[in-house]
Structures are given as structure tokens and as C-alpha cells.
Specification:
The complex is a heterodimer.
Chain A: H1 26-41, E1 47-48, H2 62-71, E2 77-82, H3 89-102, E3 105-106, E4 115-119, E5 132-136, H4 150-158, H5 163-176, E6 187-189, E7 193-195, H6 205-208, E8 214-219, E9 224-228, E10 234-236, E11 263-267, E12 274-278, H7 281-289
Parallel strand pairs in A: 2-3, 2-4, 4-5, 5-8
Antiparallel strand pairs in A: 1-9, 6-7, 6-10, 8-9, 11-12
Chain B: E1 6-15, E2 18-28, E3 33-37, H1 44-51, E4 59-65, E5 71-73, H2 79-88, E6 90-93, H3 97-100, H4 107-117, H5 123-136, H6 153-165, E7 171-175, H7 183-200, E8 203-208, H8 211-217, E9 220-225, E10 228-234, H9 235-240, H10 245-252
Parallel strand pairs in B: 3-8, 3-9, 6-7, 7-8
Antiparallel strand pairs in B: 1-2, 1-4, 4-5, 9-10
Helix pairs in contact in B: 4-5, 4-6, 5-6, 6-7
Classes of the chains: A alpha/beta, B alpha/beta.
The complex binds zinc ion.
Zinc ion (ZN) binds near residues 277 and 284 of chain A.
């Protein structure tokens, strides 16, 4: 990842002068909101939209940023996570961006946020009805691996021709004895559309199901928006005799002792010693504040930035 | 007499100023195999694509008797219904297995796809049914996880046949199914096709330039020249006593078996 922030093209910090609220002009926001409304009306369906150039490279989540920019208001509180952490360059940059162009408050606390923009994770703390989760999506099309032609994948979705999607899972069981896919694990939304949940670990898939929050997905380069409305049925694809399962770890988080969170393996010293810690830094801190302790609560004290 | 499974009425297909086929009419009854013969360029493959729901004719109708909803006009029904027919009630065996198989998917995945497309969700049962079909097309079920590229041309055709028959279709379209294969491989594949089509009672439309193939597989024969049917009858009658000069020419040009 680049060391220098791409946001340096923006004017002096602490001002929104020269920008419309949320950076995008009102006409663009209306266009994106129309796409979002359609996406909410047809859960899991990919709606094309006129993706705009943003002052960030595509890999930085311009799709998610445009969605956030279109739904954010002055009273919102924004949280941005990348790999579960609030303090990566990407997350910090996006937070700063919205602080600058919308003047909104930002937070690292899941429970305090009204909008959470994310890449790679769904927060461990359960979401609520007043929250919106915005995913940055690199590849929105779950059928792309088998069909390169966009017109054909759209037809396959339209006609719910998903046999080939199942072939992918069949091949995994035939080859590995189980469905090995760990990330971007395909789901069926509301009993109809098959959807790519973005590169979250399959550990997070169950959180998509029947979630009280509104979940919005933005793919900037591919110009697609899709959504899971609150309390929508989301099912991970599987076989009756090879049911969907999530990752489990033999140990608890070294810092907070959690046994119910997604763990990252982190190298803690020059000798290559490793510990497992919560990938969701806010969740981990919150637990420690509540007094929970793991086997090595100071394991990361020596490292500069915690989980990578 | 049983009701026709497929009825073709005055079908024509035009590409710009070029007429690929015209005035094609015939009926196909359940379990019957119809051969369409003619030299290359006679409009056979275009006709087959029109019959198989893949190429909309310029004129005429293709009527198919469905299991539950009676006779439907293949090009008047909605696209979802047409595509559903294609992957359940019909099958297509292409001359080149590459056109009919997914090369990046194992033999088992290729054969199992249609089962999964129509709702099979139990891996073990899918696997068993696929193994059973590999056996029925005389392939070693131990090769279920191997990729099509590791099979010979004749074996790839067997995988393609199994991939189509696994949903027990009622109608099969065969486009030069043994073209490009060695003569000895052709013979065993034709025997297999004949016994499968016969034992399962599947109707088939077979397009070929090879009169030896139709002699073995087809009950009735349609001879095409310049996109039009010039002769039509029982296979043995047409081949043994051809009436049209073009058919006589075709018959005389094959070597005696
Ligand atoms: Zn923790």
C-alpha cells in the first residue's frame, strides 16, 4: 500500500470550501440514490450506475466511497474499517476524506457509528436498525469465473440459471473433500439472486442474514451497486451433505480472550513468535475495557500498529 | 399413432440475402430418430440450431410437445421457458466436445451440472448419479475427477453424451456426433448412442454428412440440398431406392460397407 495519502490533492484540511457536501455534486448523488433504491427493492441484484472519478485510486474503495457520499448527512457518525482495523492507511484516509468534505464526526466505535464503510470484514458487534454498512467491492459478479461475457452473466441472473455456480462448489468438494472457499463465499439473497458478499471471510457470512442494518455494496471500477435490505434472508450456498460452516480457532484472542471473533495471526517479535488476536480492533478494545483478558494481553505492546 | 413430439412447419432461415434453409416441414414422434443428411453447405447445421431453440427462424414454426403443458411454439414462449427446455427436456451433442463441455471443470462436474441446475443439492447423490452415467457411457467411473483434456476425443464425446442424458431428456440434437473421430472409435460410439437412445426411448434429430451413421441410427431420413428438403422417407427405403437425383448421387458416392 502507498505510504503517501492520495488525498493530498485535496485543499487545506479542516474546510469543506470548494466542495459540495460529501464531495459529489447533488445530481450525481441523486443518480446513485436512485440506483440504491432499485438495489434495495431487488435484494442481491446488481444495479449498473455511472461511477464517477474520485480523488482516490480504484483499489481504495471508490465504489464504497460514492455510496457513502450519497447517503451521508451532517448528523451521521462515520466509522471506516479495513481488514477489521480502524487504523490502517486506507481507513484513516477515507475517514479524513469525509471529515473534510462533509464535516461529519467520525468514530472507531461500531456502536457509535451510523454509517460503517468496510473492506474485508463485518464488525463483530451486532449492528442495529439505525446503521448502514457500506461494503467496498472489487469484483461484484459471482459468475465471472466461469463466464467472461457481461451480457451472458446478466442473462444467467435474470433467468436464475445457477447450475454452473453450484459446479464451482462441487469441484471444491471433489478436489479438497470440502468447500474450501474461505473468502467472498457466494450467497443466495432472499431466495432469488446469487450475490458476491465482497472479500469478507466466510466467517462473516452468517452476519449478513437477517441483519437489522441496511447493507449496501459499491463496486467503483465495475460500476455496480447492490444491497441487502434489513432483515433479509441470506443463505450461503452449500450441499445438504456438505453444509456451510465457518472458520474456528483452537485458541482464544491473546489480548481479550474472545472465542467468538475472527482471529488474525500476528508476528510479535524478531524471533517470529506468533499470537492470534481479534481482527476487529474495536471489538477487542471494547472487551479489554470491560475487563476481559487473554493469555498474552500485552503481546502487541512492542509492535507499532497491531494487526496487519 | 402417438402424437408428434416435435413438429416443424415451413421453417426458413435467411442471413441477409442468403437463404440457409426454406420450406422445411416434418414431424418427429417420441423415441424416433430422424437423420438430416446433405453435403456441407446444405443448411443442415443452421436447421439444427433453429430446431434446438438456439437460432430464431426467419419464418415458420417449431412446435414441441411438453410433458405438462401440451404443445408449445418454441420461439413464442418466453426465453426462460425456452432455456429451461434446453437444459432439462432437451440435449445437444456437438461435433466438437469443446463446444459442449466445460474444459476447466472435471468430468464429474460436467455431468453433474444439469442435475444441480434443476435443484440437486446433495453432493453424494449427485456423485453417485454421475458415476452411474459414466458407467452407462462406458467410461471408468474412477476417472470422475479428471479433466476433459485428459480424455481422448471419443471419451470426451462420451462425457458430453452423459452430460446431456443425466436429466433424462426426451429429445436429443446430435450434430455430427462422430465427426473427427477414428473409424473404429466412431463405430463403438455409434453402437453406444444407438443402445442408449433405444433403451431410454429418446427421440433424436441427427445431422450428418455420413450416410453410414444414419444407416445405423436413424429410422427416417431427410435429404437436404441448397437448404431445401429434396427427399424424405424411411432410412432403408431412401438409401436403397433413392428417388431424387441428388440423393442418388449421395448414395452412389459412399463406399460399400
Ligand atoms: Zn480480542
Amino acid at each position: 500500500m502507498n505510504a503517501s495519502s492520495p488525498l493530498q490533492v485535496a485543499p487545506a484540511a479542516g474546510t469543506t470550501e470548494g466542495y459540495n457536501f460529501g464531495y459529489l455534486d447533488e445530481q450525481t448523488k441523486r443518480m446513485i440514490r436512485r440506483a440504491l433504491l432499485k438495489a434495495v427493492a431487488i435484494p442481491g441484484y446488481q444495479v449498473p450506475f455511472g461511477s464517477r472519478e474520485m480523488p482516490l485510486p480504484y483499489g481504495w474503495g471508490t465504489g464504497g466511497i460514492q455510496v457513502t457520499a450519497s447517503v451521508i448527512g451532517p448528523a451521521d457518525v462515520l466509522k471506516v474499517i479495513d481488514q477489521g482495523a480502524d487504523d490502517t492507511t486506507n481507513a484513516v484516509s477515507i475517514r479524513k476524506f469525509f471529515n473534510r468534505v462533509a464535516g461529519v464526526r467520525t468514530t472507531e466505535k461500531t456502536s457509535a457509528a451510523t454509517i460503517i464503510q468496510t473492506r474485508h470484514r463485518v464488525p463483530e458487534t451486532p449492528l442495529a436498525e439505525n446503521q448502514i454498512l457500506v461494503y467496498q467491492v472489487p469484483i461484484p459478479e459471482p459468475l465471472r469465473w466461469l463466464e467472461a461475457r457481461e451480457a451472458e452473466t446478466r442473462r444467467m441472473h435474470a433467468l436464475a440459471e445457477y447450475g454452473a455456480m453450484r459446479v464451482n462448489l462441487y469441484e471444491e468438494v471433489a478436489r479438497y473433500g470440502r468447500i474450501a472457499k474461505g473468502y467472498d463465499y457466494p450467497v443466495e439473497v432472499n431466495g432469488r439472486y446469487i450475490m458476491s458478499p465482497s472479500p469478507i471471510p466466510k466467517f462473516d457470512n452468517p452476519k449478513l442474514d437477517n441483519n437489522p442494518a441496511l447493507q449496501l455494496f459499491g463496486a467503483g471500477r465495475e460500476r455496480r451497486i447492490y444491497a441487502i435490505p434489513p432483515y433479509t434472508k441470506v443463505k450461503s450456498l452449500d450441499f445438504e451433505d456438505y453444509p456451510f460452516t465457518v472458520e474456528r480457532w483452537a485458541q482464544a484472542c491473546a489480548l481479550c480472550g474472545a472465542t467468538d471473533s475472527f482471529l488474525d495471526e500476528v508476528i510479535v517479535d524478531d524471533q517470529g513468535a506468533r499470537v492470534f488476536v481479534c481482527s476487529d480492533t474495536d471489538y477487542c478494545e471494547d472487551r479489554r475495557k470491560q475487563g476481559f483478558r487473554g493469555a498474552a494481553p500485552d503481546a502487541l505492546a512492542a509492535t507499532a500498529s497491531g494487526a496487519s | 399413432m402417438t402424437e408428434p413430439l416435435l413438429r416443424v412447419e415451413n421453417l426458413a432461415k435467411r442471413f441477409g440475402a442468403t437463404l440457409a434453409c426454406a420450406d422445411v416441414s416434418f414431424v418427429l414422434r417420441p423415441g424416433e430418430v430422424l437423420g438430416i443428411v446433405g453435403e456441407s453447405g446444405a443448411g443442415k447445421t443452421t436447421l439444427l440450431r433453429c430446431l434446438a431453440g438456439q437460432l430464431r427462424p426467419t419464418a415458420g414454426r417449431v412446435l414441441y410437445r411438453t410433458r405438462h403443458e401440451g404443445e408449445v411454439d418454441v420461439y413464442a414462449i418466453a426465453e426462460p421457458a425456452r432455456r429451461l427446455l434446453l437444459r432439462t427436456d432437451w440435449g445437444i451433442v456437438h461435433q466438437n466436445p469443446r463446444d459442449g463441455l466445460r474444459l476447466e471443470v472435471s468430468a464429474g462436474g460436467n455431468v453433474g451440472e444439469r442435475l444441480m441446475a434443476v435443484g440437486a443439492r446433495h453432493y453424494g447423490k449427485i456423485r453417485n448419479e454421475v458415476s452411474d452415467w459414466l458407467t452407462r457411457v462406458e467410461l471408468d467411473p474412477a476417472r470422475i475427477d479428471q479433466y476433459p483434456e485428459t480424455f481422448s476425443g471419443g471419451m470426451q464425446q462420451r462425457v458430453q453424451i452423459a452430460r446431456n442424458l443425466v436429466t433424462k431428456p426426451r429429445l436429443l440434437f446430435l450434430d455430427e456426433p462422430t465427426g473427427g473421430l477414428d473409424v473404429s472409435v466412431q463405430a463403438t460410439l455409434l453402437d453406444l448412442l444407438r443402445s442408449l437412445v433405444g433403451s431410454l426411448g429418446i427421440a433424436a434429430v441427427l445431422v450428418t454428412h455420413d450416410l453410414g451413421v444414419v444407416r445405423l441410427l436413424a429410422h427416417r431420413l431427410v435429404v437436404m440440398k441448397d437448404g431445401r428438403i429434396v427427399e424424405h422417407g424411411l432410412t432403408d427405403q431412401v438409401l436403397d431406392d433413392p428417388q431424387h437425383p441428388y440423393t442418388q448421387l449421395l448414395v452412389s458416392s459412399i463406399l460399400p460397407v
